[in-house]
Design brief:
Layout (H helix, E strand, L loop, with lengths): L8 H9 L13 H21 L14 H22 L4 H5 L2 H21 L6 H26 L4 H23 L3 H17 L24 H12 L2 H25 L7 H17 L5 H18 L5 H32 L4 H27 L2 H34 L7 H15 L3 H11 L4 H8 L3 H15 L4 H15 L1
């Protein structure tokens, strides 16, 4: 039965956000879309409650800037949890049991209890406070693995749309939380954590099909394919680590100065603005601009803001830090989309693969946060160290960007710089892995070259509707939703083989 195309701009936009699939144009508001969007929104709200506000902070007169130290331990807990999961021989336990949900809910509730006791005047030992923050950070990491591992079977367009809408909605929730008392925030945190931990990510009656979720069937890729996939997950760990250091530094300084100047509204920029941009990207640009191009553009923006940081007044410092956090939030969501593409395309196990691709970011956050904490201990340290650190990070970003552009420039130019034998092996691997027919292979090869549907029909001497049918079957089998996603998949495999 032919899919009915939606009419009207709003319907087409909703249809595009839903990944261009489904029987109706309002599928975005179907339960399968709403529940994951709410769950991911609650995950972002949980993070910003913990790190952007002082809701869970326990005051102390013993240690200097103990509030910043506590939040740093939260990032450290998340990093240690991700490293531990990535080092496991198998992470099937996390996928077959509700451990991630129960652990994230328990850790989120524990810090609420400790914070409430401290506000009620009950003395809490400082090691206990730091241990609870470590546990809370590990809980946010567990929630991340559950949410994004559970959504990896969704299509690329739908996955990007859910994250974009969730980020946008969480920004408005953050603004609402600013006007509430800490006691109400603590109560709301319990609901937010429980929704992020237990919200269903797909209807029980719908099981992932073979093309979209091979990992759910327990298929194990060959050793060579597995090694190449792990290499793909780690191929951008340098850029992820570097930008995370910048983010950790900017976030630490920005949050501290925002709290001191009562200008926490600037943190709203880091949620809503990236959310709006990513929603627009999901609707209008995802078929025209690849994720890799957007990620590359964020590097010079971050370098420019870093150069302004040491020469700004307190207001400008908060604004620059907020813009840096906004850039990183955009990068973070796009990087999650890129991780999902690699994991889904290579049939990798969910929790272990997500942790492997994620821990470099958290390690960078810890290092950047530690640098910011050291600068905030004294005013002199901030004035002396900030210019030197910013210049050093700018130099590192320029070097990384140069390497990044050089590394992908030949691939971006097409297959002309790649031996035909290598291109043929990549096409053979895709055909074998996804079970494409000989005719579908011919169509795929022309799609990867950027040919339009009309051009493919003329070259292969088949009708327009036949080409559309072949394209639909290719997208279904490979697990993509647009020609650009198919091109990105082939380019990624070409890069790994060179």
């Amino acid at each position: 039965m032919k899919e009915r195309k939606p009419k009207g701009r709003v319907s087409r936009a909703l249809h595009g956000l839903a990944g261009g699939r489904g029987a109706s144009a309002d599928s975005l508001v179907h339960e399968w879309q709403v529940l994951p969007t709410v769950a991911v929104s609650c995950y972002w709200i949980w993070l910003y409650l913990a790190y952007s506000l002082d809701v869970f902070v326990v005051s102390s007169d013993v240690l200097v800037r103990f509030d910043i130290l506590q939040k740093g331990f939260g990032f450290l807990g998340a990093a240690l949890f991700m490293v531990a999961v990535s080092l496991l021989r198998t992470a099937a336990f996390f996928e077959r049991t509700p451990f991630l949900a129960l652990f994230s809910a328990a850790s989120g509730t524990s810090i609420v209890v400790v914070s409430a006791l401290a506000r009620a005047g009950v003395p809490v030992a400082l090691p206990v406070v730091l241990a609870v923050w470590l546990l809370m950070g590990a809980g946010t990491a567990a929630a991340f693995l559950r949410l994004f591992g559970g959504l990896q079977d969704a299509g690329q367009g739908r996955f990007c749309a859910v994250n974009a809408l969730a980020l946008f909605l969480s920004g408005f929730f953050y603004l609402l939380l600013l006007g509430l008392q800490d006691g109400i925030r603590l109560v709301l945190t319990v609901f937010v954590v429980c929704i992020a931990a237990f919200a269903p990510l797909r209807p029980p009656e719908e099981a992932p099909d073979a093309a979209r979720a091979p990992s759910a069937r327990g298929d194990v890729p060959s050793p060579d394919a597995g090694n190449a996939a792990v290499a793909a997950l780690l191929s951008f760990r340098g850029e992820l680590f570097l930008l995370s250091v910048v983010f950790g530094l900017a976030y630490c300084l920005g949050i501290s100065l925002s709290i001191m100047s009562n200008s926490l509204e600037f943190i709203w920029l880091s949620l809503c603005v990236p959310g709006i941009f990513l929603v627009l990207y999901s609707v209008f640009l995802k078929d025209r601009v690849s994720v890799r191009v957007l990620l590359t553009l964020l590097f010079p923006i971050a370098a420019f803001l870093l150069l302004l940081l040491p020469f700004s007044n307190p207001f400008g410092l908060v604004l620059c830090c907020s813009l840096l956090v906004m850039c990183f939030t955009t990068y973070d969501v796009l990087n999650v989309v890129r991780l999902r593409e690699i994991i889904a395309a290579n049939r990798l196990p969910g929790a272990k693969s997500w942790a492997t691709g994620r821990y470099p970011q958290l390690a960078g956050l810890v290092l950047g946060w530690a640098a910011g904490y050291g600068m905030l201990l004294t005013d002199d340290a901030l004035k002396v160290l900030l210019p030197a650190v910013c210049v050093g990070l700018v130099v590192a970003i320029v070097a990384m960007l140069t390497r990044y552009v050089w590394r992908y420039s030949d691939v971006a130019g097409g297959a002309a710089h790649v031996p035909e034998e290598t291109v043929g092996r990549v096409h053979d691997a895709i055909v074998l892995r996804y079970g494409l027919s000989p005719r579908e292979r011919e169509v795929m090869e022309l799609l990867v070259r950027g040919y339009s549907t009309d051009r493919i029909g003329k070259d292969l001497h088949i009708s327009y509707h036949t080409v559309k049918t072949h394209v639909y079957h290719i997208y279904q089998k490979v697990g993509v939703h647009a020609q650009q996603e198919l091109i990105d998949l082939v380019e990624e495999r070409l890069r790994l083989m060179r």
